[in-house]
Design a protein that fits this description.
Blueprint lengths: L7 H50 L13 H6 L23 E4 L6 E5 L8 E4 L5 E3 L5 E4 L6
Antiparallel strand pairs: 1-2, 2-5, 3-4
């Protein structure tokens, strides 16, 4: 007499194989997600840089926006010509937080940046010489300055 169904050993083997496949797939998915977020952040910081430069050219006298935590909402959404109509948010920060924007004290340089894959702000400012302050880690940025020394 032959019983239908699986033995306990067979079920354990199947569950083990599924667990191994999931263990392989999850890190790869996370890596692909980080790559997609990196591409998005690079593209959006370049769009914001274009919008900031357009804002500068259309101000009398020419001036970059002041340092704010809501660059789009405070300056760019209502700028003319309108390059950015919605708030662009950093994909590496939860809660729909905009990209960071910091202007140098003399008003000549700025940096727009994403926290990057580690989710921490490594850029802390930009000097009056256009050099970024902080740590050159994994933040993704666009600047009219010289970057890090």
């Amino acid at each position: 007499m032959h019983r239908k169904g699986f033995t306990l050993i067979e079920l354990l083997v199947v569950i083990s194989v599924i667990a191994i496949l999931i263990g392989i797939a999850v890190p790869r998915f996370k890596g692909m997600q980080d790559e997609a977020n990196t591409s998005k952040a690079n593209a959006e910081t370049r769009v914001l840089q274009t919008a900031v430069e357009s804002y500068y050219m259309h101000q009398t006298p020419n001036a970059y926006p002041a340092s704010v935590t809501t660059l789009c909402a405070a300056y760019l959404n209502d700028a003319s010509p309108n390059i950015v109509s919605d708030e662009l948010t950093d994909p590496f920060r939860s809660g729909g937080v905009e990209y960071n924007y910091i202007r140098s004290n003399n008003g000549r340089y700025y940096v727009i940046f994403s926290y990057g894959p580690d989710g921490a702000a490594d850029i802390t400012g930009i000097g009056d010489d256009g050099v970024l302050a902080g740590t050159d880690d994994d933040d993704l940025y666009a600047t009219n300055g010289t970057g890090f020394d």
